[in-house]
C-alpha cells in the first residue's frame, strides 16, 4: 500500500489546497456573512494542518479562538452595521 | 517511475506554496477591498498564515532507517528511565516555535477585539463602514 | 459557474507551480534533526537526575511558556489587558441596566440544551486549563474554551437576563483583577520567600537553581504539581474567561437612540 509517511504528507497537501480555496472564496465574496463562514472553514483546515504538524497545544488554542470567538464577535458587529460590501461604486 | 522521495518533496512543496498563495491573497484583500470588516478578516488570515510558517519550520521528518514517526513534545509517562528520555529527545519535534506561536495567537486576538470595538464607534460617527466614503468625508 | 472555473484555475496553479519547484530542487523541507537549543529544552524539561536544572514538567511547551520564557508571557498578558481596557474606554457611557419586562432570547429547546451543555463545557475547559503541566493545554486554552459559554448564553437567553442574574461588568472586572494579581504574586513568590528566610532567590523562579535553594514543591501528596506552573495556569484561566465576558457584554448591549451613549 502507500507508505505511511506519504499518506501523512498527502493529508497535509489536501489541507493546504482546501485552505487556499476557502481564502479565495472569503476575500472575493460580497455578502459579509458568507465571508465570515468561509473564514471559519479556512481556520478548520489550518487546525487540521497544525494537528498533522504535531502541535497539539496550538490546536487547543486555535479551535476556540478562530472558529468560535472571532466569527461570533464579527457576526455581532455585522448585525449592528451593514451586511453587504459594494465594490462597483466610485473607485477609491 | 517516480521515486517515493520525489513524491514526498512534491507534497511538501504543495503545502509551502499554498501557504504563500494564502499570504498573497490576504494582502490583496487587505489593500484593495473597501469594507472595514473585510479588512479585519484579511488581517486575521494574514497573521494565522505567518504562525503556520513558524510551526512548519519546527517540524521534523521521519527518520530514514526504521521509519519512525515524529512525536509531539510531551513525555507520555511520569516514570522516566534514561531509555525513555533518549528516545523522546530523538523523536520529538521542536517545542520553541510552538511556544512563540501561542503568544502570537493571543496578541492577534486582542488586536482583533479592539478593532471590532473601534469599528462600531466608526459606524456610529460616520453612518457607514466603507473606507472610501470615509476618506472623502474628511471628518 | 465562473467561480468554479476560477477555483479550478487556482488549484492547477498550485499543483503546477509546486511541480516546477520540486523538479528544479528549489524547495524547503524540514530536516531530520532539530536544533541544539531544542535538544537542550527537551532534555532538561523532566530529568530527575539533574535536580538543579530541571523544570519537573513532562510538557515541554508549557515549561517554555511559563518557566524558561516566563517574562514573555507576562508581557503578553499585559498586552491583552491593555487591549481590553482600550475597548472598555471606547464603550464608555454605556451603562448596563437590566430590563425586566423583556422576554427575549430564542425558543425553549435552545434554552434547555444550553442549560445542559453549559456545565459540560465549563468542566472540559477547567480540565484543559488545570492539567496544563501534564497534557497539552494550559491557562489560555482553558480560558478560551470557557469563554464560549457566555457568548452562547447571551445569544440563547437575552443580555438583559444575564445582567439581571448578577453577571455585570463590575463583577467581571473584579474577577479579572483577581486573576492578574494572582499572576503577579506567583511571579514574585520565590523572591518574597527568599527575602523572608534570608537566602538568594530570583523573580519568576520555579525550581531550585545552582545558586539558589528556594524551590516550589514539585510533588504534592504523590501527584505531580510542577511548582508555580499550576498556579499560573489557574489564575490565567480565570483572568482570560472574565475578560472575554466583559467584551461580550459590552458588544451585545443594544444602544439607546438619543443622548445616552458617547
Automatic annotation (TrEMBL), chain A:
One of its GO terms (cellular component) is plasma membrane. It is a multi-pass membrane protein. The chain crosses the membrane at residues 6-28, 35-53, 59-78. It is found in: Cell membrane. It comes from the Archaea. Its main location: membrane. Keywords: Cell membrane, Membrane, Transmembrane, Transmembrane helix. This is DUF4040 domain-containing protein.
TrEMBL record, chain B:
The chain crosses the membrane at residues 6-28, 40-59, 99-123. It is found in: Cell membrane. GO terms for cellular component: plasma membrane. PANTHER family: ANTIPORTER SUBUNIT MNHC2-RELATED. Its main location: membrane. Pfam families: Oxidored_q2. Keywords: Cell membrane, Membrane, Transmembrane, Transmembrane helix. It is a multi-pass membrane protein. Signal peptide: none annotated. This is NADH-quinone oxidoreductase subunit K.
TrEMBL record, chain C:
Residues 109-245 form the Na+/H+ antiporter MnhB subunit-related protein domain. GO terms for cellular component: plasma membrane. It comes from Thermosphaera chiliense. It is found in: Cell membrane. Pfam families: MnhB (PF04039). Keywords: Cell membrane, Membrane, Transmembrane, Transmembrane helix. Its main location: membrane. It is a multi-pass membrane protein. It comes from the Archaea. The chain crosses the membrane at residues 78-95, 116-134, 140-163, 175-197, 229-251. This is Na(+)/H(+) antiporter subunit B.
Amino acid at each position: 500500500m502507500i507508505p505511511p509517511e506519504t499518506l501523512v504528507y498527502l493529508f497535509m497537501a489536501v489541507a493546504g489546497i482546501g485552505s487556499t480555496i476557502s481564502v479565495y472564496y472569503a476575500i472575493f465574496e460580497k455578502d459579509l456573512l458568507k465571508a465570515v463562514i468561509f473564514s471559519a472553514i479556512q481556520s478548520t483546515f489550518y487546525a487540521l494542518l497544525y494537528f498533522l504538524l504535531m502541535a497539539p497545544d496550538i490546536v487547543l488554542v486555535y479551535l476556540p479562538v478562530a472558529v468560535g470567538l472571532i466569527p461570533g464577535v464579527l457576526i455581532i458587529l455585522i448585525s449592528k452595521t451593514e451586511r453587504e460590501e459594494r465594490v462597483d461604486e466610485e473607485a477609491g | 517511475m517516480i521515486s517515493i522521495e520525489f513524491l514526498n518533496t512534491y507534497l511538501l512543496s504543495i503545502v509551502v506554496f499554498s501557504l504563500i498563495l494564502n499570504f498573497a491573497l490576504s494582502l490583496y484583500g487587505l489593500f484593495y477591498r473597501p469594507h472595514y470588516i473585510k479588512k479585519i478578516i484579511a488581517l486575521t488570515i494574514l497573521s494565522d498564515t505567518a504562525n503556520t510558517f513558524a510551526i512548519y519550520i519546527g517540524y521534523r521528518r521521519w527518520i530514514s532507517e526504521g521509519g519512525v514517526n515524529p512525536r509531539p513534545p510531551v513525555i507520555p509517562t511520569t516514570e522516566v528511565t534514561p531509555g525513555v528520555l533518549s528516545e523522546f529527545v530523538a523523536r520529538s519535534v521542536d517545542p520553541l516555535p510552538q511556544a512563540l506561536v501561542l503568544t502570537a495567537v493571543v496578541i492577534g486576538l486582542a488586536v482583533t477585539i479592539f478593532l471590532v470595538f473601534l469599528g462600531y464607534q466608526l459606524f456610529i460617527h460616520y453612518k457607514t463602514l466603507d473606507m472610501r466614503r470615509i476618506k472623502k468625508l474628511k471628518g | 459557474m465562473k467561480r468554479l472555473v476560477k477555483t479550478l484555475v487556482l488549484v492547477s496553479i498550485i499543483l503546477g507551480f509546486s511541480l516546477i519547484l520540486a523538479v528544479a530542487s528549489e524547495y524547503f523541507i524540514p530536516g531530520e534533526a532539530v536544533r541544539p537549543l531544542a535538544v537542550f529544552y527537551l532534555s532538561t524539561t523532566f530529568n530527575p537526575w539533574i535536580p538543579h536544572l530541571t523544570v519537573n514538567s513532562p510538557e515541554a511547551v508549557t515549561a517554555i511558556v511559563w518557566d524558561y520564557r516566563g517574562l514573555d508571557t507576562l508581557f503578553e498578558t499585559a498586552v491583552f489587558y491593555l487591549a481590553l481596557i482600550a475597548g472598555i474606554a471606547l464603550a464608555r457611557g454605556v451603562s448596563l441596566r437590566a430590563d425586566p419586562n423583556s422576554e427575549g432570547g430564542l425558543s425553549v429547546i435552545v434554552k434547555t440544551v444550553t442549560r445542559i451543555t453549559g456545565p459540560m463545557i465549563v468542566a472540559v475547559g477547567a480540565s484543559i486549563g488545570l492539567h496544563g503541566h501534564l497534557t497539552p493545554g494550559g491557562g489560555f486554552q482553558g480560558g478560551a474554551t470557557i469563554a464560549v459559554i457566555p457568548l452562547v448564553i447571551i445569544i440563547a437567553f437575552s443580555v438583559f437576563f444575564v445582567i439581571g442574574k448578577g453577571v455585570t461588568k463590575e463583577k467581571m472586572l473584579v474577577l479579572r483583577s483577581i486573576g492578574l494579581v494572582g499572576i503577579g504574586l506567583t511571579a514574585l513568590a520565590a523572591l518574597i520567600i527568599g527575602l523572608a528566610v534570608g537566602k538568594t532567590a530570583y523573580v519568576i523562579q520555579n525550581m531550585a537553581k545552582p545558586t539558589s535553594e528556594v524551590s516550589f514543591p514539585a510533588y504534592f501528596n504523590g501527584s505531580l504539581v510542577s511548582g508555580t506552573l499550576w498556579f499560573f495556569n489557574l489564575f490565567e484561566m480565570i483572568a482570560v474567561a472574565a475578560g472575554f465576558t466583559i467584551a461580550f457584554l459590552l458588544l451585545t448591549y443594544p444602544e439607546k437612540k438619543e443622548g445616552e451613549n458617547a
